[in-house]
Design goal:
seven-stranded antiparallel beta sheet; alpha/beta; about 475 residues
């Protein structure tokens, strides 16, 4: 839905309904204790969960992209505090004709990444016209399954072998957003055949690399069940990735806060995860594309506040281990994209490299949360409304390995004033959306007082 293929294509515009088929359902109910509940007596250490966490950032590069532009992006990544890149290695680019491989530019790109200390999580995708089966539901070839599976096997084998010297390649992902026709104009059986073949090649040629199933457009129970149970691929990949663009490409009822549930309370925990655990041996869940666009009508503060909500909400889920930030910079107006105009505006920087407000928000969030592992301690919070009333109140508490606590709190509808009890600490710093630190003095070592909320706006605190 938001990827630029590595070649010029006609625009393919599909209905939004096939991209996010989420039902119109009530939003997820707010978490946290009711005012005056016994939970305010204090936190329970037994209620926390610790997990690994990692981050990546995305920007696709066509073969021949200016390496000066790429180097500039790598510097932006390091300034942000994330040094893992995800993007496409296009079959169209690197085998433009059957048996004729062209890796010259890719080697220069990989050498630059290695020099700059950038780790890589590429995905292999986009079928060249000469290899495409054709006969699909549209008039393009790049999203078709290969006509002959041995062509795909040869491309994957040659590519993985060619790139074997690069130790900064962490994984290979197999195609992209394959659970919608716009990105995979074939069947589940077709996809699982290319997944099986790619896995066989990668496991043999580069056994230390992760094999990642193509990122799904939403938590698709049927697709996961088919991959792991119907087609027996559970042992052939290591990660189940999901893409998340709530409030850019979702119905109004599906928001950041209920995206994993797809607007249906309990869906992720009661329907999606049981299939992952039973059919797929409990594989890690990655949100390896997450983003919010700023087309006309959406502001930079909207995007920045969205990122604060997204980091807090998604990382608070016990099963989410990875966030992929989409993307470094907006598309240039002359660039061709597939899909809606929002695809031009997903960057943390504008196309001219001017930093948006969200750049500073994400930089601060990464400084706070990119700590290798996090303890999610939401249930250790106790919240009391002292003035006003709560509407849709959300609060999340993370504890870093060094003991520092990071607290997020917001109410989507009302303006309550809160008392919040956390783990003990000495000082509290609040951060604005531009990352600016401010001392917060209404803290007695256990309780933050006079925390006044503005509807929809996140407040971010660090407790030391």
């Amino acid at each position: 839905m938001n990827r630029l293929p590595r070649f010029l294509l006609p625009l393919v515009l599909l209905a939004l309904s096939i991209i996010v088929p989420a039902p119109d359902a009530p939003a997820q109910q707010p978490r946290g204790p009711a005012p005056g509940s016994p939970a305010f007596r204090g936190p329970s250490p037994a209620s926390a969960i610790t997990k690994r966490i990692s981050f990546a950032i995305l920007q696709d590069y066509p073969k021949g992209e200016s390496l000066k532009e790429v180097a500039g992006d790598f510097q932006i990544m390091k300034e942000l505090g994330v040094t893992t890149w995800r993007g496409s290695f296009s079959w169209i680019d690197y085998e433009p004709q059957r048996g004729r491989f062209d890796y010259a530019w890719l080697h220069r790109f990989l050498d630059l990444a290695a020099k700059e200390g950038i780790m890589l999580q590429p995905y292999l995708a986009y079928t060249p016209e000469w290899a495409a089966r054709g006969g699909g539901t549209d008039r393009v070839d790049w999203n078709d399954p290969p006509r002959h599976i041995e062509d795909w096997r040869r491309f994957v084998s040659r590519t993985v072998t060619e790139l074997k010297p690069y130790r900064n390649i962490e994984s290979y992902e197999v195609y992209n957003e394959e659970n919608v026709k716009q990105w995979w104009d074939g069947t589940a059986a077709d996809y699982n055949q290319v997944l099986r073949v790619a896995s066989e090649v990668i496991r043999k040629a580069a056994p230390l690399k992760l094999v990642i199933m193509g990122g799904m457009v939403w938590p698709d129970v049927a697709w996961v069940r088919q991959a792991c149970a119907t087609y027996g691929n559970a042992a052939r990949f290591d990660v189940i990735p999901i893409h998340a663009y709530p409030e850019t490409w979702t119905p109004q009822s599906v928001t950041v806060e209920n995206y994993l549930d797809q607007g249906r309370p309990g869906f992720f925990r009661r329907e999606f995860l049981p299939v992952v655990d039973q059919a797929c041996s409990g594989k890690p869940i990655w949100l390896n594309e997450v983003g919010y666009a700023t087309p006309p009508g959406k502001s930079e503060p909207d995007q920045a506040n969205w990122w604060a909500r997204a980091f807090a909400t998604f990382l608070a889920d016990p099963r989410v281990e990875h966030l992929g930030i989409y993307q470094i910079r907006d598309r240039k107006p002359q660039a061709k994209v597939i899909g809606e105009s929002e695809n031009y505006y997903l960057g943390l920087l504008k196309a001219d490299r001017k930093k948006k407000l969200a750049f500073h928000t994400v930089k601060r969030l990464l400084a706070l949360l990119n700590a290798g592992s996090l303890t999610v301690a939401d249930n250790q919070l106790a919240v009391e409304v002292t003035e006003g009333k709560k509407g849709e109140l959300y609060q999340h508490l993370f504890v870093r390995p060094d003991g520092r606590q990071v607290l997020f709190v917001w109410d989507k509808k009302e303006s309550p004033t809160l008392r919040i009890r956390t783990r003990p600490g000495a000082t509290v710093t609040e951060y604005s959306l531009d990352g600016t630190p401010m001392p917060f003095t209404s803290f007695d070592g256990r309780v933050l007082s006079q925390v006044r909320l503005t509807p929809g706006m996140v407040r971010i605190f660090e407790i030391r």
